[in-house]
Design a protein that fits this description.
The protein is α/β, with parallel strands linked by helices. It is built from 12 helices and 12 strands. A 7-stranded mixed β-sheet has the order 2-8-7-6-5-3-4, sandwiched between helices. Strands 9-12-11 form a 3-stranded antiparallel β-sheet, with helices on one face.
Length: 377
C-alpha cells in the first residue's frame, strides 16, 4: 500500500466513525448557528451550485471579510480553505535562491509549499521557556537578509496558542519592510485571541493576511478561506491562482451568513472552549509529569506536555484512539520538539473534553508501556 493510501485510509477510518470525538484537528464541533445552516440549505435548494462562483469570490463575501478585518481599501480573494491561500502566496513569491523564514513549531504545510518552489526554509525555534514560547523581533532580525522572500507568522500560533501584540506585529513588519520580504500573517485562529492586529494594517504594501472559516465557524469540510491584501500586492499574487473558477458557492453562502451572526456565535463558542480549556488544565495539573506550558491558549486548542511522564506522545494518541478519542501528537507540528507534547482541541462538546480528562490518567499509564504504535498522521 502506498503512503497516500495508508494516510487516506487512516483518516477515512476516523471520518467514518460517527461516534469519534474529534479533539485533534482544531475543528469546531459546536452545533451550527441556524442562520448558517439555513444559508447552506437555501443554496442547495436553489441549486446555485450549477454555476461557477466568481473567481475571486462573491462580492458580498469579499466585502464582509475585509470589513471584519477592519482593512478599508483592501481586497479579499476567496479560496478553498486557508491552505489554498497559503499555497497561492508561496507560488507567487518562493523561488530558488530565496529563503522562507518561520517558527518552529508552526504549521507545516506552507513550509512544504515553499520548499517545493525551491526556497530554503529557515525555522526559528520558539518552543521553550527560554524563548517564552514566542518569536522575538531580535531573533527574527538575526536570520533575515536580502534573500528572504517570505516571513511566515502563524498568529495565534498553532500549536502553542500564543498571540502577538500590536507592538510585536509592528516590529515584525518593520523587519520585513527593511529586507523587502512578504509577511504572511496566518490569522486562522484570530477569532479566539484576546486582541489581534492584522499585519496588513501596518505593512499594507507587503503583508498578506490569511483567514479561515474552518475553525471559528466550523466549516472545515466545506473548504472556504481567503487571503486579504491591498490592491498593488494582490495584483502580484492573483495571477498565480490555480482556481480560476471560484470556491464552493454553498461554502461561500455559509461563510457570508456566519459573518452576519459572528458576534453572537463567537460569544457562545468562546464560552464553551474556554471552559473546556479550564477542564483540561485542572486534569493536567493533577497528573504527575504533565503540564500545560501556555494557558490560556489564544487558539481553540491547548498543548499538553507529557515528556516528564516518561511516555511517547504517539503512544498516548494511540491509546486514546482505542477509546474513540482523537488527539494529535506533537511531531505533526515539529520533529524537533514533537516528543514533548500532545495537542487537544477545545471547540467541541464539553462532554467530549470531560471524557478525555476522565481517561487521561488511565491512558497515560497504558501509554508508558505501549510499543506497538500504528502509523499516525
Amino acid at each position: 500500500m502506498s503512503l497516500l493510501d495508508t494516510k487516506n485510509a487512516y483518516f477515512d477510518r476516523l471520518f467514518s466513525d460517527p461516534e469519534l470525538k474529534w479533539l485533534g484537528q482544531n475543528t469546531n464541533h459546536v452545533p451550527q448557528h441556524p442562520a448558517v445552516a439555513a444559508a447552506m440549505h437555501a443554496a442547495v435548494d436553489a441549486e446555485n451550485f450549477h454555476a461557477y462562483a466568481p473567481p475571486a469570490g462573491m462580492e458580498a463575501l469579499r466585502a464582509a471579510i475585509v470589513a471584519d478585518l477592519r482593512l478599508p481599501g483592501a481586497q479579499a480573494l476567496v479560496t478553498d480553505g486557508a491552505v489554498a491561500a497559503l499555497a497561492l502566496i508561496c507560488r507567487a513569491f518562493a523561488r530558488p535562491g530565496t529563503t522562507f523564514v518561520t517558527t518552529d513549531p508552526g504549521w507545516k504545510w506552507p513550509l512544504q509549499f515553499a520548499a517545493q518552489n525551491g526556497a530554503e526554509v529557515i525555522e526559528i525555534p520558539i518552543y521553550g521557556p527560554e524563548w517564552n514560547f514566542r518569536l522575538s523581533p531580535e531573533r527574527l532580525a538575526e536570520v533575515v537578509d536580502e534573500r528572504t522572500a517570505i516571513i511566515y507568522l502563524v498568529d495565534p500560533n498553532n500549536p502553542l496558542g500564543i498571540t502577538y501584540t500590536a507592538e510585536e506585529i509592528g516590529a515584525f513588519a518593520a523587519i520585513a519592510r527593511e529586507v523587502g520580504a512578504i509577511l504572511i500573517h496566518d490569522s486562522t485562529y484570530r477569532d479566539f485571541a484576546e486582541g489581534h492586529t492584522p499585519a496588513s494594517m501596518i505593512y499594507p504594501e507587503g503583508a498578506v493576511t490569511v483567514v479561515s472559516f474552518s475553525k471559528w465557524l466550523g466549516l472545515a469540510g466545506m473548504r472556504v478561506g481567503a487571503l486579504v491584501a491591498y490592491p498593488e500586492l494582490m495584483d502580484r499574487i492573483a495571477p498565480f491562482s490555480t482556481a480560476p473558477l471560484g470556491a464552493s458557492v454553498i461554502a461561500q453562502a455559509a461563510a457570508l451568513a456566519g459573518l452576519g451572526v459572528k458576534d453572537e456565535w463567537m460569544a457562545e463558542v468562546q464560552q464553551i472552549q474556554r471552559h473546556n480549556q479550564a477542564l483540561i488544565k485542572q486534569a493536567v495539573d493533577a497528573l504527575p509529569g504533565f503540564a500545560m506550558p501556555v494557558y490560556p491558549s489564544h487558539g481553540n486548542f491547548v498543548v499538553v506536555e507529557c515528556i516528564e511522564a516518561g511516555l511517547r506522545p504517539e503512544a498516548l494518541v494511540a491509546e486514546f484512539q482505542t477509546a474513540g478519542i482523537m488527539i494529535r501528537q506533537g511531531t505533526y507540528h515539529t520533529p524537533r520538539f514533537g516528543d514533548r507534547f500532545i495537542k487537544v482541541s477545545t471547540t467541541v462538546p464539553t462532554a467530549w473534553v470531560e471524557a478525555f480528562c476522565a481517561l487521561l490518567p488511565q491512558m497515560a499509564a497504558r501509554a508508558k508501556t505501549r510499543t506497538d504504535i500504528p502509523p499516525l498522521f
